[in-house]
Amino acid sequence: MPSVIALDAMGSDRAPKPEVEGAILAARQYGVRVLLVGSETTIKMELDRHGAARRLPIEIVHASEVITMDDKVEAIRAKRDSSMRVGLRLAREGQASGFVTAGNTGAAMATAKVVLGAVPGVDRPALVAVFPTAPGTPAILLDVGANVDCKPQNLEQFAVMGDVYFRAMFGKRPGTTEPRVGLLSIGEEETKGNELTREAFQLLKQLPLNFVGNVEGRDLYNGNVDVIVADGFVGNVALKISEGVANLVRTALKESLKATITRQVGALLSRSAFTDFKKRLDHTEYGGAPLLGVKGVCIITHGSSNANAMKNAVRVAAEFAERGVNQLIENGLAALRPAVGVGTL
């Protein structure tokens, strides 16, 4: 039976256009049933622009309110019929396998915690982002923005959730027996970093994980580590810098290849390689950031997301649900309590 994913059709900067187009691509390519949540009139107008959508498993679920990018987190209490809250309710009640939004990140996280609740053993959910690496197998970084201020035990939980998520979604990297977990810091030595990372280091090295110690920013991409743990402030800065560098590389390469006739001919001959290169650096291929640690599937993607990003966010939500990641996280945390002390996790 195909997965059913609720997609907030009113969340992105250009809603509902990318949401509708992404839903069509996901339904067509992955056979996923998509519930577009939001203003029925607005969504229907956009769907009517795509005649082929009538033959696809796409439905509209009406929601009369929208949480905007300018709304404060408190808006979730006032807007009880927002597309975000209605979509998460569908996930909680089992009418959808998961929920995807490109809306207000803070509101999405707060609403998910209220509507879905937290997985037992998780104090704070974390957002996880996927990064390309030189060897080709992705690496993941968490947290990338859910928690600006963290305690050492939060990073401990992030490490466990990241290890479980990597195993479930990517398996193991060739040549390794289990995911390599690192703590993002300013140096590899155990004594490097601030008070938070030094205390977290002591907790992480006691976990029955493949903890490789401190790692630095360059390790996001070199393939030396699979799961990178950070507080949400540092993780979000690393994520945004990485996206900016990727855009710079694509733009600079494109301009350089247009500089002379010889380069243009060379670019034409190497079009396939350049297409692969662009796809590898394209964050829209990775499908947004799952919110780990809530009782349900919630994927949060950029407000500027295009149809490809929406399509892949729906795909990730379906895969997350099908592989039972939340239950694996709960089992992983429960199994670790005797090993690290009941009061730690």
Describe the overall structure.
Strands 3-2-1-4-11-10-5-6-9-7-8 form an eleven-stranded mixed β-sheet, sandwiched between helices. 49% of the residues are buried. The chain has twelve helices and eleven strands. It is of the alpha/beta class and 345 residues long. It folds into two domains: 165 residues, 3-Layer(aba) Sandwich (Isopropylmalate Dehydrogenase), CATH 3.40.718; 157 residues, Isopropylmalate Dehydrogenase, CATH 3.40.718.10.
From the structure above, extract its key features:
phosphate:acyl-[acyl carrier protein] acyltransferase activity; lipid metabolism; disordered C terminus; 345 residues; globular; eleven-stranded mixed sheet; Phospholipid_synth_PlsX-like; cytoplasm; alpha/beta; Isopropylmalate Dehydrogenase; 15% strand
Please give the share of residues in helix. Answer: 40-55%
The gyration radius over C-alpha positions equals: 21 Å
Low-pLDDT sequence parts: 339-345
**CATH topology label of the largest domain:** Isopropylmalate Dehydrogenase
Question: What would you give as the CATH superfamily of the largest domain?
Answer: Isopropylmalate Dehydrogenase
Number of structural domains = 2
What class do helices, strands and sheet pairing give?
alpha/beta
Distance between the termini: 36 Å
Number of strands: 11
Mean pLDDT: 86
